[in-house]
Amino acid sequence: MEMWLVMAFDSTQQALRAEMLLEYAEIEIDLFPTPKEITAGCALSIQFPSDSLTAVKEIIKQEGVEIRGIYSKSAVGYDNIRL
Fold first, then answer.
1. Which residue intervals define the domain Putative Se/S carrier protein-like in the entry (predicted)?
2. Around Cβ 68, how many Cβ atoms within 10 Å?
3. Which of 12, 47, 15, 9 is nearest to 28 (CA)?
């Protein structure tokens, strides 16, 4: 079973910008409501496969997208992945 990660944002503008950039890069993503366990200023998050993490981080850094963090789901909630 493939593990998916969640990227949270502080603004809807940054979430939609990231969505556009990642889709352009042909990275499989899913835009969905931010889980209640993650504190973020935006109600939208992006879910993506964990094997795309390196590419996602590179795009976010190159394009200057502001994110709250990238999280992995564990048995007790969501754990922040250090960038």
1. 6-72
2. 20
3. 47
Burial 28-62 (b: 16+ CB within 10 A, else e): ebeeeebeeebebebebbbbbeeebbeebeebbee
pLDDT of 82 over the 90 cut? no
Structure letter (DSSP) for residue 82? P
Strand, coil or helix: 44: strand
Q: What's this model's pTM, rounded to 2 decimal places?
A: 0.88
CA distances from 49 to 11, 13, 34, 41, 52 (A): 22, 22, 16, 23, 6
DSSP reduced 3-state for 52:
helix
